[in-house]
């Protein structure tokens, strides 16, 4: 037969909590650390300064947020960037009677 069904979640056991890579958690930890340092060092007297202070944590949290059909938002943004910056010339390689070469005698 040779027909095997591979479960969709076979790679989940390689991820931390079934969602995150090590790089994702390191990135989020750095973002939270920078936000913590900014909260300590900046004078949080108004809303603008508090938003600036927590922005690194929010941005890194957004980047590692899981998305259906992709790993996370960082993967989605990377794929969009590659799609729009790479060559978009698609060569037709389908099957057609005009694509066939004449048999050599």
Structure described in brief:
It contains three helices and no strands. It starts with 21 loop residues before the first helix and ends in a 20-residue tail after the last helix.
Number of strands: 0
Shape: elongated
Taken as a percent bin, the fraction of beta residues is under 5%
- Poorly predicted runs: none
Order of helical and strand elements: HHH
Tally of individual helices: 3
Q: What radius of gyration results from the CA coordinates?
A: 24 Å
Distance between the termini: 39 Å
Helix content: 40-55%
Mean pLDDT: 83
What does it look like?
With 105 residues, the chain is mainly α. The mean pLDDT is 83. It contains 3 helices and no strands. The radius of gyration is 24 Å and the shape is elongated.
Task: Give the key terms.
single chain, 3 helices, 105 residues, mainly alpha
């Amino acid at each position: 037969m040779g027909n095997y069904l591979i479960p969709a979640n076979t790679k989940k056991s390689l991820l931390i909590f079934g969602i995150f890579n090590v790089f994702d958690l390191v990135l989020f930890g750095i973002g939270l650390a920078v936000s913590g340092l900014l909260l300590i060092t900046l004078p949080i007297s108004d809303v603008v300064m508090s938003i600036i202070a927590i922005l690194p944590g929010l941005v890194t949290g957004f980047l590692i947020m899981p998305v259906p059909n992709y790993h996370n938002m960082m993967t989605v943004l990377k794929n969009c960037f590659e799609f729009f910056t790479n060559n978009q010339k698609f060569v037709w390689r389908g099957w057609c009677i005009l694509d066939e070469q004449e048999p050599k005698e």
